Amino acid sequence: MTKEKTKVYIYTRVSTAMQIDGYSLDEQKTRMKGFCAYNEYEIAG
């Protein structure tokens, strides 16, 4: 029997102008994709 992967959504955001320069949305997305791959989550959408 094949185990169905958990489906997840990725949500990125910044709350201040300083965060835009220091921690980009692209970096957040890259880290989240790595986390999902490691935990065998399927990114929906």
Can you tell me about this structure?
This protein has one domain. A two-stranded parallel ribbon has the order 1-2. The chain has two helices and two strands. The protein is mostly helical.
Q: Total strand count, please?
A: 2
Mean pLDDT comes to: 87
Q: Strand fraction band?
A: 5-15%
The rounded Rg comes to: 13 Å
What is the general shape? elongated
Largest sheet: 2 strands, parallel
Number of domains: 1
What's this entry about, in short?
This protein has helices at 17-22, 25-38; strands at residues 7-8, 42-43. It is mostly helical and 45 residues long.
Question: What's the topology here?
Answer:
Blueprint: E1 7-8, H1 17-22, H2 25-38, E2 42-43
Parallel strand pairs: 1-2
Offer a few descriptive terms.
elongated, two-stranded parallel sheet, 45 residues, 9% strand, mainly alpha, 2 helices, 44% helix
